[in-house]
Amino acid sequence: MSALFRKTKKAEEPSKKKESEKKAKQQAIPTGSVLIKQPKISEKTLKAGEQDQYVFIVIKQATKPEIKKQVEKLYNVEVKKVRSMNIHNAASRFHGSEYPTTRTKKMVVTVKKGQRIDITGNI
Fold this sequence. Notes:
Blueprint: H1 12-27, E1 36-39, H2 43-49, E2 53-58, H3 64-75, E3 79-87, E4 92-94, E5 97-99, E6 104-111
C-alpha cells in the first residue's frame, strides 16, 4: 500500500486528556468555599442596581451555576440570569518597574424584578 491509503491513528487520546483537564479544573474548587470576593461598587454598577443587576468580583474558577447558588443563598433573592466576563488587568507600575496583576472574573447577576441586594451598606 502506498502512503496515501494508510490508516492513521485516531485522535481519541488528546480529547480524553482535555476532558480530564477540565474535570481537574472544576474539582479544584473546594465544596462550600466562598466564590464571591467582593461586590464591585462604581457609578455604573450602582446605576445597574436600579435595573435589578448587580456586579461581583469572583474567583477565576467560578462558574455561572455556582455563583447563582451562592448569591441566592447569601442574599435570599431569586436569580434570573448570570453573565460572566474575564478581566485582564494591565501591569501596574511602581517606581518605573512593571509588576503583573492578577486576572480576575466579573459576574453580572440579574435578580427577579422587585428584589434588591444591599451591596453598599451604609454609604
